[in-house]
Protein 1
Amino acid sequence: MLTGGIGSGKSAVSRLLANHGGAVYDSDSMAKSLYERVPGLVGRLEEALGRPLRGADGAFSRGLLAAAIFGPDSGEDRKKVEEIVHPAVFEDYREWRQSLPEVPFTVFESAIVLKTGYPEMIADYVIFVDAPLEVRIERVMERDGASREAALARISAQDGVDPGDPRIDFIVDNGGDLESLSEKIEILIEKIR
């Protein structure tokens, strides 16, 4: 399992692990597709939140969901969403992993899995990607076109993602350049093989 806060560089680590033969399940991307693939999921979320999550065209709106879970005083709504979406993501991961019997290893990538909990059979190892706060803020601003305040709000929404968590087996410092990160992943691969 690969985790770490938003902007820490989990995607860069995932790409490097994939270069070593691993298959990566990006839970954020896959969760986004679940809204279309799992019948009734959006309706359950709308009922739990008491607000529409579809635009005028009737399609699911990620923007409306983001407004519900990243806004001020949104902690309770975020928890409701997690309680519905996370079990669907874990089930989707299990099915995905079973469809890949020939890969040497799989990686379940999720920013908040340590905060929200996960089934133990999902991971042999927990790898935490970390980077200094200012680096993370800059990455989120650049990637999402977000203001500094919006980037900080998203980072704060993930409070509880802590590199000191005893479930973490390995910490990867991703505050430097790609070459340095690549060297760290080479060492990590040797340890987990």
Protein 2
Amino acid sequence: MLKGVILTNPYDDNPAQTKKVARMLEEFTKLGVAVEVKKNDAFVARIVDGNAECFVDADFVLYFEKDKYVAELLEKCGIRVFNSAAATAICDDKMLSHIVLCNHGIPMPATLPGALCYNEKGEVTDEYLQNAIDTLGLPMVVKQCHGSFGEQVYLASTFDELKHIVKKIKMSAYLFQQYEFQSSGRDMRVIVIGGRVVCGMMRENLDDFRSNVAHGGKAKAIDVPKDIAKMCEKTANIIGLDYCGVDVLLGDTPKLCEVNSNAMFEAMEAATGVNVAKLYAEHIIKSVKNDK
């Protein structure tokens, strides 16, 4: 019998994550796979006498985490991790995601990497901000490179708003991005498993420029158009993702917004009726067996 571990963040009490873990446990159990849930504060991977040591009795680890260090150590011990440490690290950094995906023919909004400040007293100059405005225009989206559920994403409509936002986040990694007017408050979330699109939903929010369900967005099932499906599958392949949610901005030319290696799927399952948890569990089982 295959054995697995679902590794979760010890500080994450988000109900959507709890539901996600429960759904995966349910589907693995139905498929005859023994899976244990562990929190990532148990030091399941460590370095001893210069060697990686892992204390996980499992054929695979389902990594519901963003801690790249533990994932790397697990892989050093020969344990198959879903998603891989490298893919998870890329998706966890929004700017890095865009860099990895650029030059591959994937449409994306114009994006500028923010200048990281290492000095709390450092001044955010007007010239710096004006250069961003001259390039991208206003309103402009500003994103911290690390964040989930639409948090750490801001909309600056004026110079003063932009300055306030950047002064607040200057000590963290962030980016500037062109605002896609046609997609304001709406986008498409597409789930890709094992390199193919399995379902998609439209998300729309009449009260916020962010479409995230966590911010009040409403979801409905949609047949993913072939061009968008091709873009999403290509994205997952480039990054090396077994599972992901790809967010697509809508307009005359659909554009990739973000890639989430640990996308929640409660709203997706409810909207589409597709058993995402089962499809992901089946993909993991098939991949592990093929590795043996």
Protein 3
Amino acid sequence: MRKILIIGAGPAGIFTALELLKLGSNDDITIIEQGRLIENRVCPKSKTKECIHCKPYCNITSGFSGAGAFSDGKLSLNREVGGDFPSLVGEELAQEIIDYTDKIYLEFGADTHVEGAEQTDEIREIRKSATIAGLKLVDCPIRHLGTEKAHQLYYDIEKYLIDHGVKVLANQNCSDIIIEDEVCKGAVVNGERVDADVVVVATGRKGADWLDDMCRLRGIGREAGIVDIGVRVEVRNEVMEKVNRALYESKLIGYPKPFGNKVRTFCQNPGGFVAQENYDNDLAVVNGHSYKEMKSDNTNLAILCSHHFTYPFDDPITYAQKVGELVNMLGSGKILVQRLGDIKAGKRTWQKELSQTNLKPTLVDAVAGDITAAIPYRTLTNILNFIEQMDKVVPGFASDETLLYAPEIKFYSNRIKMDKNLNTNISNLYCLGDASGWTRGLMMASSMGVYMARQLMKQQ
């Protein structure tokens, strides 16, 4: 009987264990998670009305089911969305695994309705407008779990794993990976050595910097990947009404002049709420939630600019963190928000001005200020030019009252070197999900976990 240690209880780790059970594994499986079990993950902000910086970890970013499940709970059902895992294992196989993984989500209560699954005249018109604007519209059916519904779904998965013999241990801090003669032997958890025959690291975006440190310290093959830095945009629902109705989430990609960096929309939340997440060292970043039943008057979405650094710099995660820290400094530790019209006018936004327009911020404790004083010029120029292109697809998107929140940062720039069987240069060590740099989002991370389990079963 092998001892399998899974570090991180996000979608990649969860679905590794889940698929092992479904395939009849007799392995001794343990999942350790630095945060809490899902039934104990509660953000007090609903009562306090402002972030109180929970210790030792933010309940939004840490805990069973990971950070993504507590944002908006959207499953992208197209292999073109969610990272580069398909390029590793093959596009057809990746799509087959996505379809299979989607059925598992349905078994645990996911909504059977799929957003954007039908090719309508409205979608064709949106694509035509995007093409004229120099943007690419990526068709991607979305299964929306909803933030509150995802909580129940992942609780049911957690209970299933425990009931079937998987040890799911919360509040477990992994400080090191034990590697001897290029073979992984286990990990150091809560200060003690834990031996294992197989170690699967699936620490998510929250643990991407930790994994990067492990790579440098323990000689795990890696390469500097892409880091995404951007803003979260909020507009009235009326502005996004056509896109929301036809697609629910518009996935648009562009390469705006003059720099030509890839800029994309991400995590669109019709009737949603802008939210704050806290990472290590009290770094506050912005995200978005979308509930199934509770709705706001606004739609929010991220606009992310991708940066791929070259020699001699190879630490993009730290770069992104520094950008976030600078924005936080201007916001006195909180999320910064600015009206687009004020950016165009070359002025900061004042708190009183936010109450003088049709658009009311859903992140009520965001601090009005000047994000242009903190976001790098190249990044901000790309984003502002992309917004102007978006305005041709969604008239009113670039209006003066449009809100930009910062910083929105996705920590998955570390890219672990591995072959198509997910083998790293260290025997018995595997790295999955967003922390590995190969996935971005719930569905692709879950699918990579399924694939991992199948590879492990081949080794029995």
